[in-house]
Design goal:
Elements lengths: L2 E4 L6 E7 L4 E5 L13 H6 L3 E6 L15 H14 L5 E6 L1 H13 L4 E7 L18 H27 L9 H12 L3 H13 L3 H5 L5 E6 L11 H7 L3 E6 L6 H4 L1 H13 L1
């Protein structure tokens, strides 16, 4: 059963799960996904003796679906509210995709007094938009076209990208049932949240956040990631962050937390114990 707490910023009720004892690992889901996305990670780390805390961000899973509050600052403050609600100390933050943006913004806004290190999978940082000082980024026209497609038929948009999400064309073994379930999970997200967070993922500049991260950072990224291309993200992040390590997965896409779960779990565990 999930547990709930109310955010101090606007009274939104958020759902979370809390398992085990020991050093806490806080799992932050990716865009449009609930905490269930971590089903290959939670049992593993519980068996290793860690406490696993998982948050359904606003608009996702069993949390409230307000009309506002999907900006990066508020989402980072929601994460801070959970950590403070549970009075977590020496926490490890593990995040996927846009969850990585929330983690680095959390550190920028709230500091690292409660956090010992972070592990980010296919994170949408440091800056995805094409600008004069970021010529390799995604052009505004392409971002707008993506948002228009999501508005028109979100289910079809997800279906068109399902195989690429897992890089099945490179031989990764992900069952059709798993792909179907993950699409259903993504569709459970509020359409308002899905559109606004997707828009901000490609237009929010996290370069200053990344450059100021005060704890060790592990970056795990699929070279075949079509959602958050590695050249725009982790290969730039590792150059900016003070203490970062990048591990590249040659035949992985954005869904490496499932397609490469055993290696992901082993890499995170080694990083925690280092």
């Amino acid at each position: 059963m999930p547990m709930f707490f109310t955010t101090p910023t606007d009274g939104t009720t958020l759902a979370y799960e809390d398992y085990g004892t020991g050093t806490p690992i806080v799992f932050v889901a990716g865009w449009s996904l609930p905490t269930d996305m971590w089903e290959r990670q939670t049992p593993f780390f519980l068996e290793q003796g860690y406490r696993c805390v998982l948050l359904d961000r606003r608009g996702h899973g069993r949390s409230d679906r307000p009309s506002a509050g999907y900006d990066t600052d508020t989402r980072a403050d929601d994460l801070a509210a959970l950590i403070e609600h549970l009075d977590l100390r020496d926490a490890i933050l593990v995040a996927h995709s846009t969850g990585g943006a929330e983690v680095v913004r959390y550190l920028a806004r709230h500091g690292a007094d409660r956090v010992s290190r972070i592990a980010l999978l296919g994170a949408a940082i440091p800056f995805m938009r094409q600008t004069e000082d970021n010529p390799i980024g995604v052009p505004d026209g392409l971002i707008d076209a993506t948002l228009a497609d999501l508005r028109a038929d979100r289910a079809q948009w997800l279906a068109d990208r399902a195989q690429g999400y897992y890089a099945t064309h490179l031989g990764t073994r992900v069952s059709p049932a798993t792909i179907d379930i993950e699409m259903r999970r993504s569709m459970s997200c509020s359409p308002i949240a899905a559109l606004e967070i997707q828009r901000l993922a490609f237009r929010t500049d996290h370069r200053a956040d990344v450059a100021a991260v005060p704890v060790p950072m592990l970056l795990l990224h699929g070279v075949a990631d079509q959602s958050i291309p590695i050249d725009l993200s982790s290969r730039q992040t590792v150059k900016l962050a003070p203490d970062a390590e990048l591990k590249e997965y040659p035949n992985a896409g954005h869904g490496l937390y499932q397609s490469h779960a055993d290696r992901v779990n082993a890499d995170i565990l080694a990083f925690i114990k280092a």
